[in-house]
Structure formats: C-alpha cells, structure tokens
Amino acid sequence: MKPHQLQIQNTLSRKKEIFQPIELGYVGMYVCGPTVYSDVHMGNCRTFISFDIIYRYLIHLGYQVRYVRNITDVGHLESDADEGDDKIARKARLERLEPMEIVQRYTTGFHEVMAMFNAMPPSIEPTATGHIIEQIEMTEQIMKNGLAYESNGSIYFDVEKYIGNNNYGVLSGRSLEEQLNNTRDLDGQGEKKGRLDFALWKKAKPEHIMRWNSPWGEGFPGWHIECSAMSRKYLGDRFDIHGGGMDLIPTHHTNEIAQNVGCCNTAPVNYWIHTNMLTVNGQKMSKSLGNSFLPVELFTGLQLDPKSPGAAPSLAVLGDKHPMLDKGYSPMTVRFFMLQTHYSSTLDFSNEALQASEKGFRRLMEALKTLSNAPVSDKTTYDIPQLQSRLYAAMDDDFNTPVLIAELFDVVRYINSVNDGKEFISAEYKSSLIKLLNAFVHDVLGLKDDIMEDQSGTTYGLMQLIIRMRADARARKDFGTSDLIRDELAKLNIVLKDGKQGTSWEIKS
Ligand code: AMP
Ligand code: ZN
Fold it and tell me: How confident is the model at residue 454 (pLDDT cuts 50, 70, 90)?
C-alpha cells in the first residue's frame, strides 16, 4: 500500500480528518441503499455514484474494502414519523402485485441503471426482509438494556431515556429543542411515551400484508433498525465508514446511532460521509415534488410514457421529447457531469450544464486516444511525476473529483500540444502517463468511452421508433412486416417482448 494522507470530511466531527482504518489495510463501509418501491431517480444515482468513487479510490489505494449497501424492501413508511403505509406494500396494493414482485422489479431496474453508470456492485447487498431475525434480536437487546418499551404490540426506542446518558443530536448537531420542533405531532403518537421516540417494531394492522412473527405478535420492523442490524452483522459493532445522502442525517442516521449505542454500548461508525443533493432549479430532486428525472429519460431525451411497465432501461416505453432536455446524454457523460462537482456541494441539473459536460468528456476521451498514438521524442516537456502527486493530492483531499478533473484537463492540453509537435514526450514517460491516466480516468473515476456502446441514447431512440412502426403495422394487420421486424431484430440479438402494457426490448448477451 502506498503511504497516503487521505482526508475525509466527517459529519460527526464536522471536520476534515486523516483517515485511519480500524484494521490496517482493511475498510468496512456501509451505505444506505434504495427503497425499492419505485424507480431510482437521478438524485439517488448521484449519491450512489459518489460512493462508487469513494469505493474505487479506497481500492486503488490498496485497501481491501467490504462495501455493504442494503436494499430497503420493508419498513420504510410514507412518513418518517412511523406513520402511514409501508411504501412497498402500498405500491403492491395499487398494482395488485405481491410486494416481492415490486421489490424484484425495482431492484433489477436499480442494478441495470448502476451497471450503465459503470458503478461497481457492493461486496454484500443485504435486504431488510432477509434480516428480520437480526432486527428482532437487536430490538430485544435494546429492550434488555432498558432503552425500548412495548406499547400495544409495537416496540419504541425510548429517546428520552437515551438522552440521559448520550448525545442524541451528535450527528446532526441539533439541540433537543430543535429536534422537538422538527417533529410533528401525528396520529398514533399516543402509543409513544415521548415525541422523539421511534419504532423498532410495528404491530401489523389486519390489512397489512408484509408481516412476520415476533415475540410481540405479528408485525414488521421499523425502517432504521434494518441498517443497524445489517451493518453490525457484516461489519461488526464498530466499523470505518457509513454513508448516505445528507437528508438522512436528522432522522435515519441519528436513530441508527441511537440503536447501535443502545444495543452494543459503542458508537458504531468512525467516519460518517454525507452526499449533497441533486437539485432542479434549486429544489431537491424528489419523487414527491414531481421534479425527478429518471436515468432512461436522460439517456434518451424522451419522457417515460405513463403506461410504461417500468423505467428500467430495458423495459422503458418512451413517449414525447422531454421538456427540459434538448437531447439524450450517454451514461458516461452524465457520470462525468456529476463528478465535475464535489459530492458535498449541491449540484443543479440543467440541459446547458450537461451539454458542456458532454464536450468536456469527449475532449478527455479524445486526448486519451491521441496520447496512445502521439509521437515520442528524446525529451519530455511536462513534469509527469509532479502531475501524479497532484492527482493523488486531489483525491486525498476528501475525494475531490472536480479538482482531479481540472488537473486532467491540464494534461489534456499538453497531450494535444505533443500531438501538434509543440511539446514533447519520451517513450518511457509516455507509457507511464498512459498508465497513470488509465488508473485515474478508468479505475478511480470509473469513466469509459461509451460513444460506440449500445447504451448511447441513439439506440433507445431508434428502438422506440422501430417498436412504434411495428405497432402501426400490427394495427393495420400487416403481420408480415411486424414479424419481419421482430425476426430481423432477433438476428441482432435484440428480443422484443409483447406484454399487456406494450412492447419492451432486451439485448441478449
Ligand atoms: P431512498 O430510496 O429514498 O431511501 O434514497 C436512496 C438514497 O438516495 C439516500 O441515500 C438518499 O439520501 C439519496 N437521495 C434521495 N434524493 C436525493 C437527491 N435529490 N440528491 C442526492 N441524493 C438523494
Ligand atoms: Zn440506512
């Protein structure tokens, strides 16, 4: 391992700290994954891509990383205050499907989108429903320690009692008063002793479909306990890094810490990392605000048809031009766009910014090609060892990808000058520069040249056109043409699937 002074902005201390893992050479990292009741939007993607960079850089530095990112498939209620429906159960009811059909559909879509963004899969991807026993056991331990109580078949964490010996606002920096002011009085509050108390286990009402047996009768786990139980199971009572979007700080992560301390008497995490929000016209991108973009819309520049069976790129049925997009942008362009802003700053989404990123990304990719064909000389007119230090310094400074990209553009200028015969590079330095850029551009930033790949927006646009033409042919009862289209596509390994909600397509590998 190279000696490095990696610094991480720790939400817990509100300072940049030198990263020191618990065990030399190993890192345990937990990131809160998606709630799979609907398609991931670009805001969610920003958070997961930010952690992909962190994961990649830690691996690049030589750490053996165990990266755990969960799938929330039960327990996330519509309101963070333990009220309302379970998001997945509600969607299942609306669509007349099994909850696990909803979970499978959106988990598959999430994986597909992450693969298109070239985000590495985590080492372990545990599900909340797969860890009910662990959540019950942890709840029992917290009760044994006197920090949770039963009320009408539900179990609540006793925040008031916890506050007696611990700082409940340690992560958010909020005073008790502020926390109370941010908690709404809601129905069902009567079951709780204190307003800040939160559910570890909820009794299932008769109509609730997702339910399990427990020492307290049939019910389901609260949202926060899953991450405490699963991080502890795979990473231990205390581990190195925990991450998520910063919207999770005041409730979900605050409660996770309380649960772990309440169970195991130790703060669970050394470094808390929080990513900032993707915004649209300054507003947080979110499903509930109706301003969210789906990845497939961005890749194609088209709007998802409301009748589409899903937004996973392979299923998506697309409609008209998206009002906020001039055209589609490739997944790598979008990834590059996101990396041009530090993960801790807000990032505002616009067609203009994407257009600029597309140009920048192409320039970088072209320079890499130019370098491999560039003429060599007996001298080198650029300080390549110093460039290497600058690239590491950028990433060591809390994974500063925008500074790293600015350094890369400095070398792009040099590469183009070498090609023009105005600057020079020796054969030896050329091969070390190629290696260095491959490491930072491909391995650390996870960028690859996708212009020739099937993921580009053009393919989606073309497929939509072909599917529409085939539907028209069928409507005219011209089955000869519609069969010809299907058979010719099959020869190209593109399979069309006709369903109740229209035709979807898939590239068979
Ligand atoms: P959820 O599926 O709602 O549990 O969210 C999954 C992850 O996406 C969490 O870490 C959230 O903090 C994060 N997230 C949600 N909205 C945004 C956004 N607009 N920008 C960045 N991250 C987000
Ligand atoms: Zn979580």
Answer: very low
